[in-house]
């Protein structure tokens, strides 16, 4: 069993930065892939970025490459999403998820989810 709690969301002006954190409870978190997803009322849930358990493999949505960075500190059981050059269209609820899988881009492989944190980017 893994429990995930996100933090770090908030209101930021366009061009600003935020760092989201996802704290995990449970043992052997290093064996779990982790992903950051976002959703809005208008769009389906989107995989933003993902990282393998060891951190050696990462994935980014094409539209976000160069602006977002996913990382993890397994000693702290925490996954991060650094978001730079934020745009109003990045406004969404961001959730982290974990799954015991090597297929880090497959949404169906993630079965532990956090509650989400709101990110609002003003123009």
List keywords for this structure.
123 residues, mainly beta, 50% strand, 11 strands, single chain, 7-stranded mixed beta sheet, 4-stranded antiparallel beta sheet, globular
Please describe the topology of this protein.
Elements lengths: L2 E5 L2 E4 L4 E8 L7 E7 L6 E6 L6 E3 L7 E6 L4 E6 L8 E8 L12 E2 L3 E6 L1
Parallel strand pairs: 2-11
Antiparallel strand pairs: 1-3, 3-8, 4-5, 4-9, 5-6, 7-8, 9-10, 9-11
Description:
By secondary structure, this protein is an all-beta fold. Helices cover 0% and strands 50% of the residues. The chain contains no helices and eleven strands. The protein has strands spanning 3-7, 10-13, 18-25, 33-39, 46-51, 58-60, 68-73, 78-83, 92-99, 112-113, 117-122. The strands form two sheets. Strands 2, 4, 5, 6, 9, 10 and 11 form a seven-stranded mixed sheet that branches. The protein is globular, with a radius of gyration of 13 Å. The mean pLDDT is 94.
Oligomer class: single chain
Low-confidence stretches: none
* String of helices and strands: EEEEEEEEEEE
Overall strand count: 11
> What is the helical fraction, as a range of percent?
under 10%
Terminus-to-terminus distance: 40 Å
User: Based on CA inertia axes, which overall geometry fits?
Assistant: globular
């Amino acid at each position: 069993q893994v429990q995930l709690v996100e933090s770090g969301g908030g209101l930021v002006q366009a061009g600003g930065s935020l760092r989201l954190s996802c704290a995990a409870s449970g043992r052997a978190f290093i064996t779990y892939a982790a992903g950051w997803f976002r959703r809005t009322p208008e769009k389906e849930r989107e995989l933003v970025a993902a990282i393998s358990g060891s951190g050696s493999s990462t994935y980014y949505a094409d539209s976000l490459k160069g602006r977002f960075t996913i990382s993890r500190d397994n000693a702290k059981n925490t996954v991060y999403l650094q978001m730079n050059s934020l745009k109003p269209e990045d406004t969404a609820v961001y959730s982290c998820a974990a799954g015991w899988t090597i297929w880090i881009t497959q949404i169906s492989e993630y079965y532990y989810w956090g509650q989400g944190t709101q990110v609002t980017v003003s123009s």
